[in-house]
Each structure stands twice: as structure tokens, then as C-alpha cells.
């Protein structure tokens, strides 16, 4: 492990020596000892400081996620710009109608042509004070009412009851029971004349949101040191903890790369993540799909950090899914029955104040996401006391992998100390 660890640091231009890495390893093994011993009791422990399991994520359709999508979609497709018109169907603007009326009015009055006078009245009445053709306002309002009907609808296919209730809004549009909901909504949008090329990219996520999905993945619970180095090694994402400080166009350049050692060397921080189903040989080297830091007291308190790359994947509540997987694994390590029925007798409790994380002492150079993101939370095994005071320490002061010196402080942008960086010109 030491050679591979050093090779990775060298690849990403972080100064290191065998002596420095041995010091890091010594601290790691001492501080992570209790968690490692617990992990060894899990039936899926692989001997490489990892628990590796096959899991299935059943994605439920989230009403709130659908509502948020519809609201954003209406904003994104410029409804007013597309549907509000300043001309009549024949192409006349308010000014043209007005000018035409002024020009012809004397002749019409003289001829006592009431029909034409009424027509002029009608044309004027078809525009509002801003010169907008009134029927187009009604059309816009009907479109928004129709789209908003889908805010609270989370079924993957159209039901006859839904169509019967709002059928007047679907008039003239081929929407039938049993049709995919995403297809029905797409037909409605296209019926109103929106540009398919413009709307398609904004509409695509809706299909993922509304359709339930079962996905097979490999789930890893790890204190393998390389997993800390690659904790931001995502399949399509990165974060501020990346050790790749020349991270291309990802937008992240390792502003908190020192945090990898901070998490690795404390006694509570565990990297959990998912990778592709068939990637079980060396999971620490695989691109991560989701990553979630867990902080465990090796007893009955579990603090869940921020989920990367995002809190929601379509309608999938990743916080709940990943938290339950970790809670179940803790029970398996501790020999405790895992119950998760939501009937009042669950093994784990999420208290009403679970988002108030005021019992942590933070050390080292990691980013304190648990202090900055409201979705981060703590849970406890039923019967365990609530954590108070300085209950849990997260992070560890910097240790240079080059000289092996423990530092009181070091820039969170670097892993090696300043003296070693200068000496090695890195």
C-alpha cells in the first residue's frame, strides 16, 4: 500500500518520501484501529480496509422534485416570449390597427357602415394596454395552467382519472390513458409551438424524474487510505478535496486537498461511495458515482456529511438511501438487529434536532460541509444518549508525507508542508 500511496501523490505533484509515508501510515493505523476492527466483523469485509456490497437503489418518484422541475421548466423555456403575441393572426399590430382605423373612420362614419365600425372596435379590444394581443394572453395562461397540473402528478403513466379531471385543458391534444406521463407532457409543450431543439435539453430530466428506476451498484464503506486521496475522483464530477490541482475544466483545483489527510488520519471519518456494479477488484481506483462522508463514533452515533455530486439524483433521495445502507452496516458490525419499518420501533432514530450539529470539534484542513449544508444530519441507535459538548472529533492536524512532521497548521490547499514544497520546488 505504501508504494501505491506514494506513487499517487507523486503523480499529482505532492512531495513525499517513504519515511514520510511510513509516519502517515503509523498515525492512520493507530487512529483508525477501532473502526478497522469493527469493519473486520462485517461479512463483506474484503481485507483491504473496505466493506464491499452489491446493492440496488429503488428510486422513488419525489413529489417535491417534480414540482421543482415544473417550476424551473416554465422559467427556462421563456413562455411569455414564445406565446405572447403583439400581432393579430393576420399580422397586424396594435399601431397598424389604430392607424388604419383613424384613416378610414371618416369614410365609415359618412357611409354609416356600422359593420366596419364594429370591426374596428373589435380589433382595438383585442389588444391590452401593452400592445399584447389578448387571445395570446389567454393561450399563455391556459398553457401554464396545463403544465402546472403536472406539478402534483407523480405517476409514470397517464391515468384516466387525471385525464377526466383536467381533460378540458388537453382538448385537441392526443393524450390518452396509459401513455407515459413524460410523453404526454412533451406533446402538450409541442402543441403550443415551442422550438423542439430549444426545449428538448431542458425537458430531458423530467423523464428520469417521473419514471421509477432500479439500479444495481457496488456500495463501498472504506477507510482505505487511497480512498481518501480519491474521495473526489468522480465519474463526471469533482470537488474541492481533489488532489488533482490541474483538474482540467472541472472548476475544482484542490482548494481543500489537504482535507484528504485530515479525514484519513482521524478516528471517526469513513468514505462511503457507489461505483459501477462490476467494479469490485480495486474499488479505491474506480470512478465514484456518489460519495458521502460518514463520521462514526464506533458506537451508536452517526453523522452524515454532504452527498456528492448532488443531494438529489432526479427523484432519488440519496441522503436517506446512503444513510440507511451505512446504518445497516453498523448494525451488522455490532451484531445488532437492523429494523427500518418506520413504525416506531426502528433501530436507528433521526431526532427532530438532527440537523443541529453542535457536538463536533473540527481539526485539520477538511471542508466542514456538516456545518454548512442543512441536509447533513446525525442519527443514533435507539437507547443511545444524544451527543453533547465536544462529543466527536472530526479531522486531524496536518502531517507532511514528505518529512513526516506533524504540523499545528498548514494551508488547506496543500498536502505537504511549505518547507518541503520549497525544497522540492513543487
Write the layout of secondary structure elements.
Blueprint (H helix, E strand, L loop, with lengths): L1 H10 L6 H14 L1 H7 L10 E10 L3 H14 L2 H5 L10 H17 L3 H12 L8 H15 L11 H7 L14 H11 L4 H15 L2 E10 L2 H5 L29 H6 L4 E8 L13 E7 L4 E8 L3 E2 L2 E2 H17 L13 E2 L10 E3 L6 H4 L4 E5 L10 E3 L23 H7 L2
Parallel strand pairs: 9-11
Antiparallel strand pairs: 1-2, 2-3, 3-4, 4-5, 5-10, 6-7, 8-10
Overview of the structural elements:
- With 426 residues, this protein is α+β, with helices and mostly antiparallel strands.
- The protein folds into 3 domains: 2-60 and 214-424, no CATH class; 61-84 and 133-211, no CATH class; 86-127.
- The protein is 39% helix and 14% strand.
- The chain contains 16 helices and 11 strands.
- A 7-stranded antiparallel beta sheet has the order 1-2-3-4-5-10-8, with helices on one face. A two-stranded antiparallel ribbon has the order 6-7. Strands 9-11 form a two-stranded parallel ribbon.
- β6 (312-313) and β7 form a beta hairpin.
- α4 (63-76) packs antiparallel against α11 (196-210).
- The chain is elongated and about 100 Å long.
- The two termini are 23 Å apart.
- The model has no long low-confidence stretch (mean pLDDT 88).
Amino acid at each position: 500500500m505504501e508504494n501505491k500511496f506514494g506513487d499517487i501523490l507523486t503523480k499529482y505533484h505532492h512531495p513525499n518520501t517513504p519515511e514520510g509515508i511510513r509516519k502517515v501510515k503509523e498515525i492512520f493505523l493507530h487512529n483508525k484501529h477501532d473502526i478497522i476492527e469493527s469493519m473486520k466483523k462485517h461479512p463483506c469485509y474484503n481485507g483491504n480496509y473496505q466493506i464491499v456490497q452489491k446493492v440496488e437503489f429503488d428510486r422513488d418518484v419525489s413529489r417535491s422534485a417534480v414540482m421543482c422541475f415544473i417550476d424551473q421548466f416554465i422559467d427556462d423555456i421563456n413562455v411569455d416570449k414564445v406565446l405572447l403575441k403583439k400581432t393579430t393572426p393576420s399580422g397586424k399590430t396594435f399601431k397598424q390597427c389604430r392607424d388604419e382605423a383613424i384613416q378610414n373612420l371618416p369614410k365609415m362614419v359618412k357611409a354609416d357602415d356600422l359593420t366596419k365600425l364594429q370591426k374596428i372596435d373589435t380589433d382595438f379590444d383585442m389588444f391590452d394596454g401593452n400592445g399584447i394581443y389578448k387571445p395570446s394572453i389567454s393561450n399563455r395562461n391556459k398553457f401554464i395552467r396545463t403544465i402546472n397540473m403536472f406539478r402534483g402528478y407523480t405517476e409514470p403513466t397517464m391515468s384516466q382519472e387525471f385525464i377526466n379531471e383536467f381533460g378540458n385543458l388537453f382538448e385537441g391534444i392526443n393524450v390518452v390513458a396509459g401513455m407515459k406521463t413524460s410523453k404526454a407532457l412533451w406533446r402538450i409543450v409541442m402543441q403550443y409551438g415551442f422550438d423542439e431543439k430549444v426545449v428538448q435539453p431542458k425537458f430531458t430530466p423530467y423523464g428520469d424524474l417521473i419514471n421509477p428506476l432500479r439500479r444495481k451498484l457496488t456500495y463501498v464503506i472504506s477507510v482505505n487510505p487511497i480512498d481518501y486521496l480519491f474521495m473526489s475522483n468522480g465519474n463526471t464530477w469533482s470537488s474541492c478535496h481533489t488532489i488533482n490541482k490541474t483538474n482540467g475544466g472541472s472548476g475544482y483545483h484542490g482548494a481543500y486537498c489537504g482535507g484528504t489527510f485530515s479525514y484519513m488520519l482521524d478516528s471517526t471519518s469513513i468514505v462511503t461511495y457507489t461505483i459501477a456494479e462490476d467494479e469490485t477488484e480495486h474499488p479505491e481506483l474506480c470512478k465514484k458515482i456518489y460519495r458521502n462522508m460518514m463520521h462514526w463514533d464506533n458506537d451508536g452515533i452517526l453523522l452524515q456529511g454532504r452527498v456528492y455530486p448532488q443531494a438529489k439524483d432526479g427523484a432519488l433521495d440519496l441522503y436517506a438511501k446512503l444513510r440507511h445502507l451505512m446504518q445497516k452496516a453498523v448494525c451488522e458490525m455490532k451484531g445488532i438487529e437492523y429494523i427500518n419499518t418506520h413504525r416506531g420501533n426502528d433501530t436507528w432514530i433521526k431526532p427532530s434536532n438532527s440537523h443541529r450539529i453542535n457536538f463536533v470539534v473540527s481539526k485539520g484542513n477538511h471542508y466542514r460541509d456538516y456545518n454548512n449544508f442543512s441536509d447533513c444530519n446525525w442519527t443514533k441507535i435507539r437507547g443511545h444518549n444524544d451527543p453533547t459538548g465536544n462529543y466527536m472529533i472530526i479531522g486531524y492536524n496536518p502531517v507532511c508525507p514528505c518529512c513526516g512532521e506533524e504540523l499545528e497548521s498548514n494551508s488547506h490547499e496543500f498536502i505537504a508542508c511549505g518547507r518541503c514544497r520549497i525544497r522540492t520546488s513543487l
